[in-house]
Design goal:
This protein is mainly alpha-helical and 183 residues long. The chain is 63% helix and 3% strand. It has helices at 12-37, 49-72, 84-114, 137-171, and strands at 121-123, 127-129. The relative contact order is 0.14. It binds protoporphyrin IX containing FE (2 copies). Residues 14, 18, 21-22, 25-26, 70, 79, 90, 94, 97-98, 101, 158, 161-162, 165, 178-179, 181-182 line the site of one protoporphyrin IX containing FE (HEM).
Length: 183
């Protein structure tokens, strides 16, 4: 599955997973804040929830597939020209991004599953992902808080991630460009 990698690029599978996940995550962040902000008594309050939940579950599936590919696969060597601290910082941000992806999707699923009125997650009317926990308002609120906390952490991590990528691409000159490794 994870084809041999040219030394300076991530494998095709990881690149596809990276960009598909990034697109879904950015959309979920925008959609999540937008829908949560709609007044509780508005008639359209819950219109967008099923879309958010269904794409959230697709992301969970992508992560479950991506983790073993990332852990077991062949990866490019650290980008040349990076100072040791830059490399360490980039790796730390990557690990935290993985933690945020796992925490966001699991907390979303568990918030839903423990929610009193949830009857599973409808996947575009095709099938339903069942709830997996007993109902509990207490736990639903806890998972909700975790979801909100990681949403903001995600934004900070994403800013750090993009700052690193564009620093190497724009400020450090062509031979330091790390974007090519992910294209
Ligand atoms: C990486 C994946 C996800 C991201 C980035 C994301 C992002 C967000 C954001 C930014 C909010 C608004 C938070 C707030 O204003 O406090 C939100 C709310 C919500 N998310 Fe997610 N979400 C993800 C996955 C999921 C999943 C998998 C589910 C459920 C299956 C889910 C269910 C919900 C629900 C029900 C709310 C509304 C909570 C409320 O009414 O305040 N999310 N999400
Ligand atoms: C929420 C969105 C994103 C997440 C969660 C994310 C996550 C990650 C992770 C975990 C890695 C490490 C490689 C891997 O394990 O796959 C990575 C690498 C990378 N990402 Fe992102 N990323 C996101 C968005 C972006 C965006 C928008 C860009 C560019 C504009 C970008 C550019 C890169 C590049 C160039 C690398 C390779 C860095 C290197 O090896 O030095 N990422 N990303």
């Amino acid at each position: 599955m994870n084809s041999p990698t040219p030394l300076n690029k991530y494998s095709f599978v990881l690149r596809m997973l990276h960009w598909a996940s990034a697109l879904i995550i950015v959309s979920l962040l925008i959609l999540g804040f937008y829908m949560a902000d709609i007044a509780p008594d508005a008639s359209n309050k819950y219109d967008l929830y099923p879309l958010h939940q269904a794409f959230g579950m697709i992301l969970l599936l992508l992560i479950l597939f991506r983790l073993p590919v990332r852990i077991k696969g062949v990866h490019p060597k650290p980008a040349p020209h990076l100072k040791q601290w830059e490399h360490t910082l980039a790796q730390l941000v990557h690990i935290l991004l993985y933690l945020a992806m796992i925490s966001m999707t699991l907390s979303g699923y568990l918030m839903n599953s423990t929610y009193e009125y949830s009857q599973g997650i409808k996947m575009f009317g095709l099938f339903t992902v069942p709830d997996i926990t007993p109902k509990s308002e207490y736990w639903s609120n806890i998972f909700h808080s975790i979801h909100s906390f990681f949403a903001w952490s995600f934004i900070l991590l994403l800013i750090a991630h993009l700052a690193g990528v564009f620093k190497h691409r724009i400020l450090d000159g062509k031979e330091h460009d790390v974007l090519q490794r992910m294209l």
